[in-house]
Amino acid sequence: MKLKKGDEVIISIGKDRGKKGKIEKIYPEKNSVLLPNLNVFKRHVKKRDEKNQGGIISFSKPLDVSKVMFVCPKCSKQTRLGYTVKKNEKIRICKKCKTGV
Ligand SMILES: [Zn+2]
User: Fold this and answer.
1) 66 phi/psi in degrees, rounded to 5
2) How far is the CA of 3 from the centre of ligand 1 (A)?
3) Are 12 and 65 in contact (CB under 8 A)?
């Protein structure tokens, strides 16, 4: 997975298409990322007792990485990520402006 926590991405498909968010969490094994307050779903929770009143709770579902596009912090363009090796170090680069990100 090329994306990492804190990356800005734009959602390219679905109900939140065109919205931007910062990655809060990544799930490499599921190839998905969590964006706070985006891809929000509501769930009804039953009242269990006086402390747990129940009601409707909102929560963000992780999005598949194929549904988001990386937004380059250097050139602000939606882009793909690549890698380059400089001085034996693997550097993540923006494919549009070729800068390390
Ligand atoms: Zn760039």
Assistant:
1) -70, -15
2) 14
3) no
Measure the CA–CA gap between 42 and 91, rounded to whole angstroms. 39
Q: 99 CA to middle of ligand 1, Å?
A: 6
Q: Which residues are in the CB-under-5-Å shell of ion ligand 1?
A: 72, 74-75, 94, 96-97
How far CA 70 is from CA of 1, 48, 56, 65, 80, in Å, comes to 12, 42, 32, 9, 6
Q: pLDDT tens for residues 54-75? A: 899 999 999 999 999 999 999 9
**Range in 9-18, 48-57, 83-92 the model is least confident about:** 48-57
Tokens 């170090």 label which residue?
89
Helix (H, G, I), strand (E, B) or coil at 18: coil
User: What is the model's pTM?
Assistant: 0.85
